[in-house]
Design goal:
two-stranded antiparallel ribbon, 13 helices, 52% helix, nine-stranded mixed sheet, single chain, alpha+beta
Length: 427
Amino acid sequence: FIRKLFGIEAEIGLKNLKRNKRRYQATVFSLVISIVLFLVVSFFTANLQKSTELSQSTLNYDIRVTSHDGSDEDWINMVASLDDVTEYSVVKELDVTAWIDEELIADELRESIQQDSSVLQDGKYPYYIRLHALNEENLQAYAKEVGADDEQFMNTQNLAGIVIDTIPCRDIDAGKFVEVKTIDAKVGERLDLFFTDPETEEERHVSQVEIAAFSNQFPLGVEPAGLGGLNIIVSEKVLEHMTVDDLDMYMSTALYLKSDAPMETQQEIEALSENVHVFNVYQIRQQEEQMTMLMSVFTYGFIVLITAISIANIFNTISTSIHLRKREFAMLKSIGMTPKGFNKMLNYESIFYGIKALLYGLPISFVVMVLIHLSMMNSFIYGFLFPWKSTGYVIAALFVIVSIAMLYSSAKVKKENIIDVLKQENI
């Protein structure tokens, strides 16, 4: 089959590989190790970068400041007036639930309900609701941004809020972020809000809130609630009206900042008060990027070392094999093999080395990459991204390395005199 397909030169090359099986297997093993190491580390590094991107993608602020005993307006103004602070927002939050009719829920949720409808109660789905209260200044700016009248959000007789109904979501099939609708409601509809006591797990009605407007924009400090949840932006007056009983103890308050120099801003905040907790997103992002870079340098350095050893082994094995076959080459030339046919034979041997290494290396790499992907799914959800570019580099480098080794070793043999080589008993 090989002779009919490629010619007699390819058959001779293949028979030589079968005759010298140990040297052939040693070379293939070295190539496989290099392939697996490079592809797996490339995939692992790409996954680290992807997980960092996903963990930070919904954070639209640099610093979050929370106080153990609450922060008065003077202290907030003092922090907001720091030199490097470019934008700030005070957000009060309360977590409640709402039972949404099945026909109004997100399409993605409806698909999951068709498989398991036990979560429904009387045809309604329990939505996780996070109420975000902005101060008057920030609410006015946000309402203007989304095209709503801010005055209606100050009315405590008719509680109203802005629902963020479009959120970024990872589409596993498409392999990218897409915008999805979280609820199929209309302006003017009302949502009944319920609070579940964390100790007794008793659910009680809190209030009704009217949907005054929809938006796909997130105020500073507000993160997407995700599918099965809703972010509702209200005024501080509305939230205070809802928490007149004992719900204020379950409400959280945080100051969100954007800064040109987050590290210096953190130091200045901590100098103003010791009784605060500062979560520096910029610092976390920097640390994760540095960790990813450090691991990349270490792992790629390790790959370079192993690959260098493998290449040296490949050169040594192929050179030794070519040297031991000097009489064989002389005999083939003596019976009529031309220089073109000789080069063709060595080229086919290089191709056989590369194909055999790829037949083992690529499947092994794929299995390891799938295992890494499954382990990452414990924390992040995204599609499997096969490193096509790295695979292309590996395939090209593989044949280049083997071909160079063959050419380097055969260059010495070509200069040998046929008769002198045939006369030698031992080479």
